[in-house]
Amino acid sequence: MLCIATIVWPVASSAAPAVALYYGHSTPIKEFRAFDMVVVEPDHNQALQQLPGTDQYAYVSVAEVQASRPYYADIPAQWKLARNGAWKSDVIDQTPPEWADFFARRVIAPLWERGYRGFFLDTLDSYRLAINFDEKAQQQGLVRVIETLHQRFPGIKLVLNRGFEIVPQVRDKIQMVAAESLYQAWNANSQRYEEVSETDRNWLLGQLRAIRDQERLPVLVIDYVAPQDRALTRATAARIQAEGFIPWVTDSALQTMGIGSIETVPRRILILYSSAEAASLNYSNAHRYLQMPINHMGYIADYADALQPLPEGVLRDRYAGVATWFSGFLPEGRRKAVSQWLQNHMDEGMPLAIVGDLGQSPDIQWANKLGVQTGAVEPNGALRMTAQNPMLAFETAMPLVTRSYEPVALTPAMAARAQALVEFRDSRQRAFVGGALTPWGGFILDPYAVIEIPGTEFSRWVVDPFAFLTHALRLPVIPIPDTTTENGRRLLLAHVDGDGFASLAELPGSPPAAQVLLKDVFEKYRFPQTMSVIEAEIAPHGLHPDLSPRLESIAQQMFKLAHIEIGNHTYSHPFLWDRSTLHGLFKDNEEAAYNLNIPGYTMDLTREIVGSTTYIRERLAPKGKAVKILQWSGDTAPDAKALEITERAGLLNINGGDTSITLANPSLTAVGALGIRKNGYLQVYAPITNENIYTNLWRGPFYGFERAIETFDMTDKPRRIKPVGIYYHVYSASKQAGLKALHKVYGWALAHPLYPVFTSEFILKVQDFDSVAIARDGAGWRVRSDGHLRTLRLPPALGTPDLLTSNGVAGYRPGQEGLYVLLSGNHATLQVQDASTKASGQTPYLFEANGRLTGWTRSDREPRLELELQAHVPLEFALVGASQCQVKAKQRTLTPTPGGPLALPGIQYFRLQETHAQIQLNCPAR
Fold it and tell me: Do the strands 818-823 and 529-533 form a parallel or antiparallel pair, or are they unpaired?
């Protein structure tokens, strides 16, 4: 049986801040947001990013300067006291009276103007590199620098790196003292990591204990460990913490995500794919099939094309693992580079999951690393299956065993350590496997990953992707950021693409379909919805100038409705966004149209996105109401340039993904990911596909959109993977069958206890998914985000929230895969307890609500609870443990509503006519 190691996390002190230092520029500073304080190299971070709850300190060197600094040339030669060859810097004499002014003016002032208020003062002891120096005079010079900074910059915050001797003189002017290399060090001369000698360690321990105990200042210890050695990094942080110091253990250049008093959970998984196997990344198996399970388990998918130079800096500080999905052999010229890259990361302890095909016949080195046999390993005679792991036959029966499949044979050493997922024996009883979990990760080969159903466009998972990825990549159990739910309720959103705005409805009088949509849908169903238009369809300079006055008037009436958000469906409705990627109809038909046929117009991305937005804002939108969203048209596969133009225009974006799982195609292969990144820009996918798919490209049956209800159900159970997303085109209102389908879908949604949101709010949650920082903080968890995503899914193995000791946690409610934890803001500290343990005197908590928490205050002394809810529809909320409490809003006592969506003991439901309320709970003392 394969043994999966357990991670032992550092234990944090609640009194001391969590501190990180990062001098690189490849990792976004946002990824350090779980820390209370982060020291950065300001020359690598030109714009100071606002991270609420995280103080950013600028690294500045006091007594050394490198030639790359902009002020280097203005330092008088006589001030240069010595040379530090190991770091290629000059040591600065601290005794000239003018030095303090120079340092304040030229070093600190520019950074102060950029917004920095905290500074990490380094190299305070460097004067000792000189042959001749006056110790006392140098120290007084350092004191003069610190005093000058306090005089010039009121409120400045300083951390000293060493300078122990001057601490008593400046202790009221500094926040913290730091020191490097207590247990593990970097030797700049020999360019290697090494353990600190016992003599040096004991001396430094004495200095640091004196600072902590006598000067009563927090002490930060910075140690250095090779970035791939996470076990030693973690153990060193724990040793430092055990001494009562704040730890930060990182690489020698401080360019990776180290480990401190908290450890950020790496949430990225890099997927290697081959661009030769699909028209673009959008249509690759890696993206179509693998990303959704990765997202659902709380992880972010990054991609690398195996045909291009592979990325550097893929380390375990930010990456949970690497996966590959190849459907055949890579081009011969790329095989060695790819296998060597994978081997290097395996050597560093990076878990690897191989799906589909190895991409090549492994050479001896690669085969030895994988633990597979090479050479004459052809099966003799027919193969028969002798073992099958429960994670196989997930959505379909196991494929028949034929000689066209190519299982591999494990080496004897690997066979003893691996767990076969599917095993075969030949006539000589030799064992072969189609997949296995191994010490380095795991693999599942074709056809045991996904198979295509002959004669259809459908596929099925043979292996359970959730189970395979969890075991192969050794994914730890973590709280999972969830984009489907808020305050315990599944989200509901609706958005409409503008196609068919001018179509005449098959109704008396032949009104425009847009008029029917306005009167029969928008004015009837008054919850948040997003409407978009195609400029060329309705503008006077477009395709229907004679109809334009009436069509623009309808659009204006729609956009005046408070519950209608304004979207943009482009100028000419491009059918193919990236002409470098021909696929489907465009690949087979040179005459295929790329966009609506507008005389004299050639497709231009800026005109499609920015120009059409300007048109809507100036001619259709009520004054002060923004155009918020660009809704992708056609193949919904924009390139990075289109995404960049959209973001720079201040627009959110949505569409694509094609989630269309139904009873006719009950497979998770028909459920899309959250979105796709291209060159750093995120395209957000629609949660559920539109009626075009359910109606066979609007060829009928025209009532087909009612099958979206099947999709809503099947993306909720047994896993809630998507919110309820009602997504269609205006032309659905042009036919009675289509209109009836709309009413049926809307009716289903309103009959369920959902949480209505604008499409823009959902998009922001998906964007926030990528930026949520989760860190192990002692026995609990620290969570920080932009505040749009407010739900964590808590797997059963993690227990139950302890609300008395957690912060920023408003409550929880059961779900299909664990508990939905309700967060009250963008910062939370989640403490958990065993699910079987009932905390004595558990406080009342919010069970669910259909609106956002805009205020949350708990007072356990009185005890008293105050919450503020803001919804788009009349408020509904439920409380647990409040039966003995007086619940009030607007000075009136609220009476619970009998029954409720989930009738469980201890739950009280309340309904209000208002969409906003401040609610108070006064409870008897425990």
Answer: unpaired
Q: For residues 866 and 889, what is the distance between their CA atoms, to the nearest angstrom? A: 10
Backbone angles phi and psi of 42, in degrees to 5:
-65, -25
Tokens (6 digits) for 689: 């596909």
Q: What is the DSSP letter of 330?
A: P
* Token pair of 899 as six digits: 């029954």
Q: Which domain, by its residues, includes 147?
A: 20-264
Residue 829 lies in a domain: yes
- Residue 274 shares a structural domain with residue 232: no
546's CB contacts (< 8 A; 6+ apart) are none
> In the structure encoding, which two tokens stand for residue 431, read together?
């064992």
Q: 367 in helix, strand or coil?
A: helix
Q: SS3 for 613? A: helix
Cα–chain center distance at 26:
17
How many domains are there within the chain? 4
* pTM for this entry: 0.94
Does 4 score more than 80 pLDDT?
no
pLDDT at 840: 40
Cis omega (within 30 of 0) for bond into 844: no
User: Mean pLDDT of all residues in the chain?
Assistant: 93
What pLDDT is recorded for position 269? 98
Q: Cα separations (Å) of 430 from 375, 427, 437? A: 15, 7, 19
C-alpha 442/C-alpha 391 separation (Å) is: 13
Coil, helix or strand at residue 487? coil
* Distance (Å, whole) CA 886 – CA 892: 10
Instruction: Work out the widest C-alpha separation in the chain, in whole angstroms.
Output: 100
Do strands 489-497 and 724-729 pair parallel, antiparallel, or not at all (unpaired)?
parallel
Alpha helices, H only, 180-229? 198-213
Query: To which residue do tokens 């050394």 refer?
Result: 64
Q: Which of 491-495, 673-677, 835-839, 890-894 has the lowest mean pLDDT?
A: 835-839
Give residues with Cβ within 8 angstroms of 552, minimum separation 6: 538, 539, 540, 619, 620
Single-letter amino acid, residue 432? F
Measured in whole angstroms, the distance separating CA 605 from the mean position of its chain's CA atoms is: 28
Residues 41 and 182 in one domain: yes
Are the C-beta atoms of residues 177 and 168 closer than 8 Å to each other?
no
Bridge partner list, 186: 193
Question: What is the per-residue pLDDT across 518-541, written as a single tens digit (0 to 9) for each?
Answer: 999 999 999 999 999 999 999 999
- Cβ-based neighbour number of residue 153 at 10 Å: 18
pLDDT tens-place string over residues 349-375: 999 999 999 999 999 999 999 999 976
Torsion (CA) 450, 451, 453, 457 in degrees, nearest 10: 50
- From 363, 418, 414, select the one nearest 3 (Cα to Cα): 418
195-to-205, 522, 725, 726 alpha-carbon distances in Å: 15, 69, 56, 60
User: Measured between alpha carbons, how far is residue 680 from residues 318, 447, 773, 911 in Å?
Assistant: 16, 33, 18, 43
In this predicted model, what pLDDT tens digit does every residue of 71-82 receive, in sequence order?
888 899 888 988
Kindly state the tokens that stand for 263: 């450890």
CATH of the domain at 81: 3.20.20.70
Give residue 45's pLDDT band: very low, low, confident or very high (50, 70, 90).
confident
Residue 37 contacts by C-beta under 8 Å, 6 or more apart in sequence? 17, 18, 19, 20, 54, 55, 56, 57, 118
Are residues 197 and 302 both part of a single domain?
A: no
